[in-house]
Design a protein that fits this description.
Layout: H1 4-12, H2 14-39, H3 47-72, H4 76-97
Helix pairs in contact: 1-3, 2-3, 3-4
Length: 100
Amino acid sequence: MKDWMSRIVDQYGQEYVLRQLAEESAELCQAALKVVRVMHGETPVTLVEAQDRMLEEIADVEIMIDMLKSAALNDRGVERVREIAVRKQARMIERMLENE
């Protein structure tokens, strides 16, 4: 039996995954900005509430990213993303921390 992610991609298509990822990513952006507003005292929401909302959105985005990488891109995406992430992490460390 195929894994649940592959079944969803087969049934709804890659376009569905891309639209869902875009929607969840936008919600994560909003949640992150809400945390910033809380940090500046610009909203009555508590920090814990804002962080909990952000964690929910992180989980949603991670699910959609995993589905895109493994099911929609046929596992090729998993390895390619890993390779790209290693390169980008090294560049970020060099750019942001090596001057300390």
